[in-house]
Specification:
Blueprint: E1 8-11, E2 25-27, H1 31-43, H2 64-67, H3 87-90, H4 96-108, H5 112-116, H6 118-129, H7 131-140, H8 142-146, H9 152-163, E3 170-173, H10 187-207, E4 215-218, H11 226-237, H12 245-250, H13 266-288, E5 292-295, H14 303-317, E6 324-329, H15 335-349, E7 353-358, H16 363-373, H17 383-403, E8 418-423
Length: 424
């Protein structure tokens, strides 16, 4: 449920070291398991046992006087360990009220009738409660549960609190756009979203000295109208050479007034140039501040152009290390073909390749659209098939992690040419 236009989600734990032989492999806890254990904990049932997970944080960067954190003197010199075997420790960042709210919200989210009609219910709530009371109720429930903050002060407080318990964070700005009947372009909206991204990245940079790997998440539709992605995807399917990775990368610059694509209209070219400038500003900010940027995946009808833009960003900024990542959705039947094609392209272009693997989140809409338009359902038929695809892509990436050549020492540390982040 999307309850914020400009809030910042904090996803945790975002990264943990899996093996010294598989660098930068990341994994997050399975949310359905966390939900089950959370319910059991509050009810006093079950064994309250989750597999122990460890997040390594470089102790040398933990500056108590700078951060104002209450760090235990018993913390080891190498890592801060968080175990979910002990519910008291696992939920030490949460108050009793926050745990009760989590139980309520996650329970409500288990009812299909509420989830399927959430937007309608929100509109009804706004009409009957009024905007101020509606916002108060949302902040006390769904917004407060899923959003880490919508001001720098709130975000910083959330990040510090979690890091004090050994949890690393992945800020994700909840600004996105879907296709519409007509392409009404509001450049000022996308410029404002870009500035919000830049401000958030700079905030994360101020906090990044005491996290293992600074991570940030991006949604491409924060920077352009979704209809343009659909238009570009259709031209790509037709084999337009001007929409190649290399050519799009040439438009990723502050001054790109001479960049254009002949198959696009003047309006579409203007919007694409502005989009590339905005995307360049955000990627450059992350590159300058050594923050790894993961682009979220969205709907299949805009995926080809979205992936092409992120590959162009990799070509521009991933020459020495995989700072920019793209997301691959394993509930798609063509997921393995997509990733193997892009791996081959990355090798041919000589750029580092970053990947975030997820199962997917738009199943109902994708299937409904396929039925409406009369084309094959792009989603795997079962959960088990999606799981098998997930592990197939994982195996492919792990193999690449071992065989992909490594870069030379860059900016003080060795960096792999291939990075993989997992979101089970």
């Amino acid at each position: 449920m999307l309850v914020a236009q400009r809030g910042v989600q904090v996803l945790l734990p975002a990264v943990q070291n899996f093996s010294r032989t598989v660098p930068a492999l990341a994994a997050s806890h399975r949310w359905e398991v966390l939900q089950q254990r959370l319910l059991q904990t509050a009810a006093g049932k079950g064994d309250n046992a989750l597999p122990a997970r460890t997040t390594l944080i470089r102790q040398g960067a933990l500056q108590t006087h700078q951060l104002g954190l209450d760090l235990s003197e018993e913390t080891t010199a190498e890592s801060e360990e968080l175990s979910f075997d002990n519910p008291t420790q696992a939920f030490r960042t949460k108050s009793t009220w926050e745990i009760a709210r989590a139980l309520l919200v996650l329970r409500l989210c288990s009812f299909d009738v509420l989830v399927d009609n959430s937007l309608k219910l929100m509109k009804v709530g706004q009409r009957f409660l009024g905007q101020r009371l509606f916002e108060t109720v949302m902040r006390a429930t769904f917004y407060g549960q899923f959003i880490g903050g919508d001001t720098e002060k709130e975000i910083e407080a959330t990040v510090r609190r979690l890091l004090n318990s050994g949890l690393q964070t992945l800020p994700a700005i909840t600004i996105e756009e879907d296709i519409g009947d007509e392409m009404v372009i509001r450049e000022e909206f996308y410029d404002s979203a870009t500035q919000f991204y830049l401000d958030s990245i700079r905030l994360l940079a101020r906090l990044s000295d005491y996290v293992e790997v600074p991570l940030f998440q991006l949604r491409v539709t924060s920077f352009l109208h979704a209809n343009l992605l659909v238009i570009m995807s259709k031209h790509m399917d037709a084999g337009c050479p001007e929409l190649s990775v290399e050519n799009l990368a040439s438009g990723l610059a502050e001054d790109n007034q001479n960049f254009s694509v002949s198959v696009l209209t003047d309006q579409e070219n203007d919007h694409l140039r502005n989009t590339l400038r905005r995307l360049h500003a955000v990627c450059r900010e992350c590159s300058d501040r050594r923050i790894w940027l993961a682009a979220d995946a969205e709907y299949t009808y805009m995926r080809p152009a979205m992936t092409q833009l992120m590959l162009a960003a990799m070509f521009k900024f991933n020459q020495k290390e995989p700072l920019i990542w793209n997301t691959y959705q394993c509930y798609l039947k063509g997921a393995h073909d997509n990733i193997t094609r892009d791996i081959q392209l990355a090798k041919e272009l000589g750029m580092c390749f970053g990947v975030k693997l997820v199962r997917g989140a738009y199943m109902d809409k994708e299937r409904a659209l396929a039925k409406e338009k009369g084309y094959e359902d792009p989603i795997n038929p079962t959960y088990e098939a999606t799981g098998a695809m997930y592990h197939r892509l994982l195996d492919t990436m792990l193999l690449c992690l071992h065989i992909w050549p490594r870069t030379q020492r860059s900016n003080g540390f060795d960096s792999p040419d291939m990075t993989l982040v997992l979101c089970p």
